[in-house]
Each structure stands twice: as structure tokens, then as C-alpha cells.
Design brief:
single chain, mainly alpha, 4 helices, elongated, transmembrane helix, YtpI-like protein, transmembrane, membrane
């Protein structure tokens, strides 16, 4: 198994910090999103699944080298956390537009 060098470890930590900062900013900005949060949630779920499949493939085909699998794992955590937050926000959001749509279609 390959050992991490100091520069690879520092690069991985920097990449993880960048993803954490991006995730924090995206999650904090979700209440201000004017678009459809459900569509955003579905897109992030797809990207989470794609990253997860790539991570599993990397682990299966690249035995002994964990470097790229760790980066893909960080991307899975990044997209998964955004999806989970979008799901949480979508479920907690008041359904303000739904009754208005029903009233306008009835009349």
C-alpha cells in the first residue's frame, strides 16, 4: 500500500477545506434560493450517486492506491451533504404556493 507524502496530505487537506467552505456557503444560501429547491435536490442526488459509483469503481479497480479514492470520497461527502441539506430544507419549507395553485385552478 502506498503511503502519503507530506505534500499529498497537505493537498488533500486543502481540497477538503475548499469543499467544506463551498458546502457551507451553498447550504447557508439555500433559504435565499428563489428557484425550485426540489429540482436542486434531485440534481444533487444524481451527482452524489455518480460520485459514489466512481468511488466504488476506483476502490475495485485500483487496489492498494487510496489517493484518488479519498478525493472521490470527499466529493461524495460534499454532494451528499448538500443533498441532505436540500432535502431537509425542502421538507421543512412551508408549502405556501400549493394552496394558491389549487385555488386558482378551481376558480
Amino acid at each position: 500500500m502506498n503511503a502519503f507524502s507530506n505534500s499529498e496530505l497537505i493537498g488533500t487537506i486543502i481540497f477538503a477545506l475548499i469543499l467544506a467552505i463551498l458546502a457551507y456557503r451553498i447550504i447557508r444560501g439555500m433559504p435565499a434560493m428563489e428557484g425550485n429547491i426540489t429540482a436542486f435536490r434531485k440534481r444533487t442526488l444524481v451527482w452524489t450517486q455518480v460520485a459514489l459509483v466512481l468511488t466504488v469503481l476506483q476502490l475495485n479497480f485500483k487496489a492498494g492506491d487510496w489517493r484518488f479514492a479519498i478525493i472521490l470520497g470527499l466529493i461524495v461527502l460534499f454532494t451528499g451533504s448538500i443533498w441532505w441539506s436540500a432535502r431537509h430544507y425542502d421538507l421543512r419549507r412551508p408549502a405556501e404556493s400549493e394552496p394558491a395553485d389549487r385555488d386558482s385552478s378551481e376558480g
